[in-house]
Amino acid sequence: MSASGLKIEVNDPQISRYRPMVIIADDNLTGTSGYQRAMWEMKRNNAESKKATAKVQGWQRDDGSLWLPNELVVLDAPDLGIEGEERLIVDVEFSLDDQGGTVTTLTLMHRDAFDEPPEPLDENGKVSSKKSKSKKKAKKSDKDNIKEFDDFKKQ
């Protein structure tokens, strides 16, 4: 690592073995923004690792509507240590066969997997306004000063 490099370490208490992850920054990171990014990556990876698949009888919910992605449901699976956790439906598969009838397979993930990464903070701890800066105007070239002549006379 160079002298100008920044190294941020966070530990996930749910992971017992050493699993380093190196992320190359896509923006200028400070200590605070680097820590926020590392915490976001940890939460996202943790949520993605707890994906669940549930099969339910029928294609419709109790209210008669179809199961759809991007809806929150409560998952109760005491055998897996999951009791009353809210999960997001990320995939829905409807199936029909002569043995099981109509079955819906739901892929569920924790909603933390879909949080947006944190916005960078300035030195005062406020959200940086880098995105709100006005766009630079394009530079004029010499071609912009040349006028076109349509009524050229042929000799």
TrEMBL record:
Q: Where is the stretch described as Disordered?
A: 111-155
Basic residues composition bias: residue spans: 128-140
The Baseplate hub protein gp44/GpP-like C-terminal domain is annotated at 35-115
Which chain regions cross the lipid bilayer? none
Q: Which InterPro entries match?
A: Gp44/GpP-like_C
Per UniProt, the ranges with Basic and acidic residues bias are 141-155
Record protein name field: Mu-like prophage tail protein gpP
Q: Which Gene3D superfamilies match?
A: Baseplate protein-like domain - beta roll fold
Signal peptide span: none
What are the top taxonomic ranks of the organism? Bacteria, Pseudomonadati, Pseudomonadota, Gammaproteobacteria, Pasteurellales
